[in-house]
Amino acid sequence: MLKLAPSILSADFSCLDDEIKKVDSSADLIHIDVMDGQFVPNITIGHEVVKSIRKVTNKPFDVHLMVKDPSKQIEKFAEAGADIITVHVEADIHLHRAIQIIKDCGKKVGLALNPATPLTTLEYVLHEVDMVLIMSVNPGFGGQKYIEFSTQKIRNLKEMINRNNLNIDIEVDGGINAGNIDVVVGAGANIIVTGSAVYNSPDPVESIKQLRMNAFK
Ligand code: DX5
Ligand code: ZN
């Protein structure tokens, strides 16, 4: 099933409450970009903010940890109200342990891959995860351009999942808009993150509607 996950990275941080309410009825998940200034150049949202905005919506929180050594952070975000916790395969040398920590917290496990990271990094852990996040831009900033080779990477991942008879969501994040959503959905992605396409538009609800309409064009 197709799920849309607006990223609040492009929202107005001075009124996150209103910004989340704007998309609450039309979003499937709320995508929260956590950046530590080390794994990526920017610093964004911490677990205390996640805890505060947890009161604003009942929609699942899809927490994308763009942080170094994410294992140290997982429990805090789980307690703050995350539903899916995604760590980057490049960010933790003990990836298998990080996966176990997320599971022990009772949360869904996501693994994210930077554009240049090959799918082979997933080989031994794929059966342990609920979702794989294909980054279609280099992480750290909203509003970047979709990297074209991501489409083939999504196709290859879909094939890898099918070959192993697994049931795993494919999320894609970065540069998705109403003009290219059909390409990533056609390639096999079913959870679509959109930051600027939703929050930089004058009517976020209309933008989400448009994305849904165009997804299977
Ligand atoms: C980028 C973040 C994305 C970002 C996407 O590092 O992980 O979630 O918000 O923004 P857009 O949709 O504008 O590329
Ligand atoms: Zn993200």
TrEMBL record:
Give its E.C. classification number.
Answer: 5.1.3.1
A Gene Ontology biological process in which this protein takes part is: pentose catabolic process
Q: Where is the active site?
A: 33 (proton acceptor), 173 (proton donor)
What pathway, per the record? Carbohydrate degradation
**Known catalytic reactions:** D-ribulose 5-phosphate = D-xylulose 5-phosphate
Q: GO CC annotations?
A: cytoplasm
Please list the residues that bind substrate. 7, 64, 140-143, 173-175, 195-196
Q: Sorted alphabetically, which keywords does the UniProt record give?
A: Carbohydrate metabolism, Cobalt, Isomerase, Manganese, Metal-binding, Zinc
Top-rank taxon: Bacteria
Q: Which cofactor does it need?
A: Mn(2+); Co(2+); a divalent metal cation; Fe(2+)
Which InterPro entries does the protein's record reference? Answer: Aldolase_TIM, Ribul_P_3_epim, Ribul_P_3_epim-like, RibuloseP-bd_barrel
* Keyword Isomerase listed: yes
Q: Which residues are noted in the entry as a divalent metal cation-binding?
A: 31, 33, 64, 173
**What detail does the entry give on cofactor binding?**
Binds 1 divalent metal cation per subunit.
Enumerate the GO terms in the molecular function aspect: D-ribulose-phosphate 3-epimerase activity; metal ion binding
Q: Which family does it belong to?
A: Belongs to the ribulose-phosphate 3-epimerase family.
Q: Which NCBIfam families match?
A: PRK05581.1-4, rpe
Q: What does this protein do?
A: Catalyzes the reversible epimerization of D-ribulose 5-phosphate to D-xylulose 5-phosphate.
PANTHER family per the record?
RIBULOSE-5-PHOSPHATE-3-EPIMERASE (PTHR11749)
Matches recorded under HAMAP family: RPE
Protein name according to UniProt: Ribulose-phosphate 3-epimerase
Task: Provide the species name.
Answer: Ruminiclostridium herbifermentans
> What gene is it encoded by?
rpe
